[in-house]
Backbone:
């Protein structure tokens, strides 16, 4: 992988350099303030074209005027996906060096806010006279390395992964900047805002927050966490290196094959667990039926059921995690082999309560 030092020559010849940076964190963590300071600095120091897309500014005002009018989580998800589609329309225009077309299916208020956002940052100009449904890219947007900074909470990993997929689809640079701020500070800052969020909303988001985890998720390897109050030169250098490295090392589309294999493996594993669970339930049920036929005392029936269900639960967890407490065999073992091991362990328990004839 090329380092930030290799990326110093971003003005040189070669493929157009485009990047997406996710600016994430709790409400009132200071993301928008940080973005407003970062954007001009990158333009001045690096000579880049920079676009900050703040989700709060682009989401339709009609949804934000009254708490009772706020959409359901499923509707928010659709709006977020729609905004990503707008971003893709803009990126395709930049990549292909053409005008930006208007999506046929769109939320008019959100599209207009998105257009205003790009115009205000000198990335597009008014609609082309010969085609009112298209917008012209500015010289700034097409002549320099371009970074789009997406400013939102992005508190779920899945929200960030959707943006990563967009970067992968078009071989863009991708990185994440998590602005770490204590819940108490966020609540205090929020209370000073003219249109404050309900405190419970921030508490809830704090409980649900899934921070970038490069050790667990390979696609999050290009991530940086900084304290919201940290403005040191060291933090500034780390951030610049993060952005430069992302520009110089765009996500490769070929990675899709690797991730598809991982997805297939998870599906296969899930199916194996489901099959095993169904078969173990039937075995436990049949064993209990046999115990009743053998006139095992009610108290002992209860103990037997508890032991069998505990064994089933431990067995499934062992199968899921690969702890090999019971299953001392390769992960490729099929369900039939796994059930045979369960039968063996089950018989050791059953013998304490009754002997089958």
Residues:
């Amino acid at each position: 992988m090329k380092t930030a030092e290799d990326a110093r020559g971003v003005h040189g010849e070669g493929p157009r350099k485009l990047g997406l940076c996710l600016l994430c964190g709790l409400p009132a963590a200071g993301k928008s303030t940080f973005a407003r300071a970062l954007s001009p600095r990158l333009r001045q120091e690096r000579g880049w074209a920079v676009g900050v897309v703040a989700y709060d500014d682009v989401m339709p005002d009609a949804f934000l005027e009254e708490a009772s009018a706020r959409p359901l989580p499923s509707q928010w998800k659709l709006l977020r996906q729609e905004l990503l589609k707008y971003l893709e329309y803009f990126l395709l225009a930049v990549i292909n060096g053409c005008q930006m077309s208007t999506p046929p299916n769109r939320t008019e208020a959100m599209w207009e806010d998105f257009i205003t956002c790009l115009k205000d940052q000198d990335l597009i100009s008014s609609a082309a006279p010969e085609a009112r449904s298209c917008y012209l890219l500015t010289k700034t947007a097409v002549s320099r390395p371009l970074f789009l900074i997406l400013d939102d909470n992005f508190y779920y990993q899945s929200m960030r992964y959707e943006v990563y997929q967009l970067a992968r689809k078009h071989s863009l640079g991708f990185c994440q900047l998590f602005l770490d701020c204590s819940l108490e500070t966020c609540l205090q800052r929020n209370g000073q805002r003219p249109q404050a969020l309900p405190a419970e909303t921030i508490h809830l988001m704090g409980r649900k927050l899934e921070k970038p985890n490069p050790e667990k998720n390979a696609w999050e390897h290009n991530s940086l966490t900084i304290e919201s109050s940290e403005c040191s030169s060291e933090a500034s250098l780390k951030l610049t290196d993060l952005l430069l490295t992302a520009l110089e090392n765009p996500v490769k589309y070929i990675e899709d094959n690797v991730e598809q294999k991982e997805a297939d493996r998870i599906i296969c594993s899930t199916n194996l667990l489901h099959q095993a669970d169904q078969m173990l339930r039937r075995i436990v049920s049949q064993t209990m039926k046999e115990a009743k036929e053998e006139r095992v005392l009610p108290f002992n029936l209860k103990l037997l059921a508890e032991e069998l269900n505990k064994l089933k639960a431990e067995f499934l967890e062992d199968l899921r995690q690969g702890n090999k407490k019971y299953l001392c065999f390769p992960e490729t073992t099929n369900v039939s082999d796994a059930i045979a091991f369960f039968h063996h362990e089950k018989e050791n328990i059953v013998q304490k309560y009754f002997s089958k004839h």
Summary: Strands lie at 18-24, 49-54, 100-101, 124-128, 131-137, 146-151, 173-180, 223-227.
